[in-house]
Amino acid sequence: MLGWFAELTPRERRTMGACFGGWSLDAMDVQIFSFVIPSLLSVWHISTGQAGLLGTVTLLVSAFGGWLAGAAADRYGRVKVLQVTVLWYALFTFLCGFAQNYNQLFFLRAMQGFGFGGEWAAGAVLMGEVIRDRYRGRAVGLVQAGWAIGWGAAALLYTGFFAWLPEALAWRALFWVGLLPAGLVFFIRRYVEEPKIDPGKARVGLGHIFSPLRKPHSSMVAKLVLMVTGAQGGTYALSIWLPTYLKTERHLTAIGTGSYLLVLILGSLCGFIAGAYLADAVGRKATFMISALGSVALTMIYLFAPISNDMILLVGFPLGFISYMMFSPMGAFMTELFPTAVRGAAQGFCYNAGRGIGALFPALVGFLAKEMGLGAAIGLFCCLGYGLMIAGLLMLPETRGRALASLDAVPETVAVGR
Questions:
Q1: pLDDT tens profile 329-349
Q2: DSSP letter for each residue of 192-207
Q3: Which of 45, 138, 243, 292 is 20 to 30 A from 327 via CA?
Q4: pTM attached to this predicted model
Q5: What interhelical angle do 78-96 and 10-43 show, nearest 10?
């Protein structure tokens, strides 16, 4: 299964390694907050609605960060922007540990979002352009598996810190560890090269993808934003609130919560890997559809089936597997839909606009939890999200095996910006 990896050039492998590290550490910094929510509810006595807003603001601002980073990556280069975004989110995650009140944490979480969104925009385009057409789907998909590694690291740190430190200090220590990704920048600077772009394929700004003369781009953007909104919204509704659900409604301890989440995270890791291979084997769209439909079914079982906590533990693995499989083809799919001139701006906008709208879901879950219960609110927005994903997906083309050069060969797209 990994024989293809030996065929990659050193440049392709180094790029994969750097982006895998970026995704892993990005996930660790972002997912730390989901473990901190129960402590903030008890230590600062904030409401679930306020906690939801803290989760939403990072994701919402990440949309703007992704748009800006995507446009900057087209103008200044993928690798340069990748370095800046990694440093940005690492610094502001670290500073979150020093927040003294809700307003300070809200501001720092918002600032963290700029780097969080920008890192994906720069890294996904970099991977898509460096890895050859034949292996792009599985390579980009395997790099996405870094999200599960980072999420698992956050769960392990949470379990350890809350077992050995007082709660009032443990949640701060989790944020302080978020400075670690800054070290990745040294590897990127030394070993990762900028993609070689034909001067005739001039990179242009974000506005060109919405120009009336670029109607094929603007139509594609709208469909992709709908699909990504559903995928991100449904996933965030579950992942942001799951630790709180397990602790408050399933009455698990901190160690128990961490253990249950590790089972789900292990499933997500396997799902990322399976999705990477499925994307090349059966196509991007089929992989998305299997994941979306399976996610609805498993989420309903996890939240509403009359089963014991022991059974919930077992259901966590297939739930993580099926619900994160959808993200493996995401980067390759978007890369294969846009020509070089607008790829960074379009891809960064689509993914992060969807992420920004989907970011509203955790806040809405928090507010509705007061009226209908946390489990019911999570289930409602998961189903809504995956329904939107399927609707957008039905309007999009299959891209498996598409050569990027074929996108630039179309005169209408080559002429963009000239």
A1: 888 898 888 887 777 778 778
A2: -PPP---TTS----GG
A3: 243
A4: 0.73
A5: 20
